[in-house]
């Protein structure tokens, strides 16, 4: 049965069947093949997969990110980032990275970050003389910080799939997010200076004090959300609802950018995004149940234990496999299906669950910026209005920076665990 399910799922992928549908059809084939199983199991497992309290945070964080874009919060974050680093050569490109880091601290989604920040900064970088393919590639790569810096929807999915603490995963993502952000910022600064771009990046930027007065409510949002989580005031799930309420109040009553018309579009877009993720989780839940019933996790653990002699070679194998998988399979589906299989093996090798969760999320986040199915690339191409093939060459150095950071995160667990130990002991 497991062989039939995996082969049929890969066949459906090859036929360009949507990921969630392919997983669901493969699960149905598995149930049909097993003559001792009732079809009621499918409904039970779909319900069990979705009946998890932390999943409530997913639609709220998606909605919060869309409200930030529509309500003018992201625009003010961009202005503040430009005021901080925009005065140096290459500062506009560095401000793209900084803005994505700030925006990621609330939105939890890389695609939302690409659209919200890219719609402002890609045209601005092109106007200041940066090549459009470079600007779009930078935006797509920097936006992956949206799923690494907490709050992160993929981290919530990992926690739900593996019964890991959402709070521990969130705090473990801070160090890796800062590392990748610093690495990208350093590269674009060197790139701009070497190629003579960004000499006039300071033109038209606000002073730091003026930008802070204009954006302080927007900047207060991640402080409230992350401070509330780590201060024990509310849980990550409750924080998602707080983010929505805050974005609504600021967007409607303070910035006055949210009207009934754009609120309706924002809710509609958020509902569609949420439905897609939940549909993937539901089908992956059935798929995972059938694999567990067939004893695949235990067999996989035994096989990996024989193939890899220590945790260092195991982690290298996982990195290579996840990097390849992330190029072809959507992040949410990959996490929900693979995390329950790989985490027990990682723990056998002595890898901390939060550290492994970060490794998995960073790996699959790279899949968002690598062809052929990188969603961030398509989003950046839409914003920049250029074909995907023009992004490939300027994208390679960004991927190299991210992979280098990934290796550091993998083999220096202190990067992930420092803040976790500081908070949780």
Q: Give me the number of helical elements.
A: 21
Tell me the total number of β-strands: 0
> What is the general shape?
globular
Percent helix among the residues?
over 70%
Question: What portion of residues belong to β-strands?
Answer: under 5%
> What's the mean pLDDT score?
84
Radius of gyration: 21 Å
Instruction: Report low-confidence residues grouped into runs of 5 or more.
Output: none
Largest sheet: none
What structural class do helix, strand and pairing data support? mainly alpha
Q: Report, as a whole number of angstroms, the end-to-end distance.
A: 44 Å
How do the SSEs run, as a string of H and E? HHHHHHHHHHHHHHHHHHHHH
Number of domain modules: 1
Q: Can you describe this structure?
A:
- The termini are far apart.
- The chain has one domain (2-424).
- Helix 5 (73-85) crosses helix 6 (91-107) and helix 7 (110-127) runs antiparallel to helix 8 (132-142).
- The radius of gyration is 21 Å and the shape is globular.
- The mean pLDDT is 84.
- By secondary structure, it is mainly α.
- The protein contains 21 helices and no strands.
């Amino acid at each position: 049965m497991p062989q039939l399910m995996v082969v049929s799922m890969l066949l459906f992928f090859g036929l360009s069947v949507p990921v969630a549908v392919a997983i669901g059809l493969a699960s149905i084939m598995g149930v049909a093949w097993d003559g001792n199983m009732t079809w009621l199991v499918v409904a039970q497992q779909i319900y069990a997969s979705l009946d998890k309290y932390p999943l409530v945070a997913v639609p709220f964080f998606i909605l919060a990110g869309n409200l930030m874009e529509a309500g003018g919060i992201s625009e003010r974050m961009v202005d503040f980032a430009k005021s901080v680093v925009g005065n140096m050569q290459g500062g506009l490109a560095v401000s793209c990275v900084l803005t994505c880091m700030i925006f990621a601290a609330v939105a939890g989604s890389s695609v939302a970050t690409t659209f919200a920040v890219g719609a402002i900064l890609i045209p601005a970088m092109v106007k200041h003389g940066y090549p459009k393919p470079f600007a779009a590639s930078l935006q797509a790569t920097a936006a992956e910080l949206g799923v690494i810096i907490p709050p992160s929807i993929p981290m919530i999915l990992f926690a739900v799939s593996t019964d890991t603490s959402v709070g521990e995963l969130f705090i473990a993502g801070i160090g890796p997010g800062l590392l990748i952000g610093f690495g990208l910022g350093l590269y674009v600064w060197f790139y701009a200076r070497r190629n003579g771009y960004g000499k006039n990046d300071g033109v038209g930027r606000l002073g730091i004090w003026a930008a802070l007065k204009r954006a302080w409510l927007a900047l207060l949002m991640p402080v409230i959300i992350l401070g509330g989580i780590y201060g024990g005031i509310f849980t990550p799930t409750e924080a998602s609802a707080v983010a929505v309420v805050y974005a609504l109040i600021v967007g409607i009553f303070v910035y006055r950018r949210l009207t009934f018309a754009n609120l309706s579009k924002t809710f509609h877009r958020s509902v569609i995004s949420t439905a897609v993720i939940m549909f993937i989780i539901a089908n992956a839940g059935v798929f995972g149940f059938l694999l567990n019933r067939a004893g695949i996790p235990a067999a996989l653990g035994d096989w990996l234990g024989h193939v890899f002699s220590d945790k260092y070679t195991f982690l290298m194998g996982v990195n290579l496999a996840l990097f390849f998988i992330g190029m072809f399979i959507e992040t949410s589906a990959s996490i929900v299906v693979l995390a329950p299989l790989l985490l027990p093996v990682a723990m056998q090798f002595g890898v901390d669950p939060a550290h492994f969760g970060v490794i998995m999320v960073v790996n699959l986040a790279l899949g968002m910026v690598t062809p052929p199915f990188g969603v961030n690339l398509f989003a950046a191409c839409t914003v920049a209005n250029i074909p995907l093939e023009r992004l490939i060459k300027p994208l390679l150095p960004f991927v190299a920076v991210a992979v280098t950071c990934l290796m550091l995160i993998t083999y220096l667990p202190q990067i992930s665990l420092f803040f976790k130990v500081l908070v949780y002991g």
